[in-house]
Task: structure prediction
Amino acid sequence: MVALRRLIGRRAYRIGELTFTHLAMIAVVGPFFFIFFYMFWSSVKPDYLFFEPGVWIFEPLLLNYTDVIENSDIIRNIVNSLIISSFATAIGLICGLLSAYTIARFDLRRLALGILVTRMIPYITMLVPFWIVYKNAGLLNTHLGLILSHLVITIPFGVWIMIGFIEDIPKELEEAAWIDGASRAVAFLRVVLPLSTPGMVATAILCFIFSWNNFQLALVLGGFDVSTAPVSVFKYADPESGSMGQMMAAATLVTLPVFVIVLFIQKQLTAGLTVGGIK
Amino acid sequence: MTEKAATHQLHPVAAGASAKDRLLTWLDFNLAVIFNVPTVVLLAGLVAFPTGLVIWTSLTDWQLVLNKDPNFVGISNYVTIWQEERWLGGIFNTFYYAIVSLTGQLVLGMATALLFNRNFAGKSFYRSIWMMPMISMSVAISLVWAIMFNTTYGMLNFLLSGLGLPELAWTADPLLVMPSLILVGIWQWTPFMTLLLLAGLQSLPTDPFEAAKIDGASKWRVLIHITLPLMQGHILVALILRSIFAVKEFDTIMAITEGGPNYASETMNMNIYFNAFEYGYMGVSSAKGVIFFAFILLIQLVLIKLRRRQWSH
Result:
């Protein structure tokens, strides 16, 4: 390597290395991204071209989108999903912040372990009892029922990610506030809360995405009146429910918002996911 | 923990303290309890209570149509499920899926983490794109894969025939259906593995790498003899986390094959779903749900033990 560098010169070597890195990146990322490109481009493909997988150049149509929006419950369920995920995220965030603070500062290992175990219980194991209770309480097919069930996703996840963020806030700042006469609760409000805002933003976004993407809970506990976006999209898995263009239009409609989020706040997301995953 | 709270108690209540001060002091003493009330109450109601209930229903012969009034039958559900071939197939498929897709994710994740660990312009752009599969809705991307796998107009067969290779039946072939679904799993979750391993790579000590550089070790030797051994702990942690999700996979399989053809891709999760909510066997499904959870706990315990042993060295 050193010999090569000497042979072709430092600058040329550097350019070569950079080209190699970018080519490798494109080779790796390209096939992964292709699926999304294929999804979008198929959603604007005219129907008569559908049995021609090799045709890539055509005049894009928005017909599939109007069909999906007019003929399915997808818009209604996107609104439902927004309501359910927002509430579940807000509650998960508050619980997460408060519990994470005590776990980080009082070293409550047993509580942390208990919350970790709740993340391991598969949703399907809990769905039988949920369904029984909901049927008796009239919570099936309601917003309240789905919000409550989505708390199973957002609370443990919120706590787990917030622990990492709280641990990153220096304890000394809080102690300085105590010396100034602030009580522990006041110091939490004045010092910890403002400093944990970036962590809370990352946590909120992740909770929202996981709740938004969840399919199984609404599949069982939702119904004709109240269901979520994934359930609407799932209906297109049945080939009889629409053309493939409509299928891809439905998929694009629910994927796009998340993409926008990822592009804008990629850094916080990465931080949240790695912190939540490792600590 | 009350002891700890007490040491932080910096201004004890004086004799004529105001109500507000008294409230704040009380709050400080009980902070660890009060702050956990919402989480503990909600999780007790939403997780602990259902878990208790599912153990009870697993001991009954409850069936939604045939047997509406459940009778207590003891552990007989836990005995009979092992004679059900479809359930045993489900267990096999669950582990087949989890083991192969996790292995694939680990190898690809490690390779990409090493790539992302270099410094170059435009890295965050690539990383944004790289994260998209794991952030997007499983059901939605499953529909795209379903079209890719389609035998007559799918992209994959179009590519194969373009290269002059024989076309495959993909998800319609009982032998190929699991590998096809594993491909989707690897596509969707390798990025998560990359993130976890990348965080590990960035936290490694720099000394061994500097020493290797001084000794003039080749990049390949550094990878094999320094990076990978140092990464063992991080790899195990990533596996601990990802194995829970791999074993539980439901969305993509449901949306692409619904367990077919002929239950060839049915996992434990899906078997329980069908038995409970399509056929109404609540008692049996509860027992299967408990067994499913037990399997997950077992895997976690084994992996955590492995990590402990490795740390003690």
